Every structure is written in C-alpha cells, then in structure tokens.
Amino acid sequence: MTTQTQASAQAALDEIQTVTAVVLPEPPAAAPTLSEANPELAEEIEAKVRQVLAENNGHAPANAAMKETTEEADTVE
Question: Cα separations (Å) of 58 from 11, 29, 64?
Fold first, then answer.
C-alpha cells in the first residue's frame, strides 16, 4: 500500500470510528398519534392530508399511483 493510500484509508477509518462511536437514544415505544401532537401541528397535518386527498379525488396517493400505472399499461402499444 502506498503512503498516500494508507493515509487515506486511516483517515476514512478514523471517520468511521467517530461516527460509529455515537450512541443514539432509544426510539420511543410507539410513534405519537395525531391526537398527541400539539394542536397547531395536528391542524397542519390534517390540512395536508385533506389537500393530498383532494388532489387525488379522495384516493390515497399509492392508489392514484397504482391507477396511473395500470392506465399506462393499458395504453402501451
């Protein structure tokens, strides 16, 4: 291994050790529900949900994406 390669590898190893040495906190047992969010945040989330549903004619985006994929498959020549 050349000196430059070895120095680069050592620098990478040092960075890896620094990153992996950080101990992350344990996640909560369960994600908070919308009713547990602060009222302003809950209203913002509900408004976004209404907007997405309105843009997709009341369907969840995954259903809309699936419908588009099906329609595209039907039109392929």
Answer: 53, 32, 9
| Distance from chain centroid for Cα 17 | 26
Q: Where do runs of H (alpha helix) occur along 1-77?
A: 3-20, 39-55, 61-75
Closest-CA residue to 42 (of 51, 30, 33):
33
Cβ proximity of 34 and 42 under 8 Å: yes
- 48 pLDDT exceeds 50? yes
The reply to whether the predicted model has a pTM over 0.90 is no
Instruction: Report domain extents, the chain.
Output: 3-75
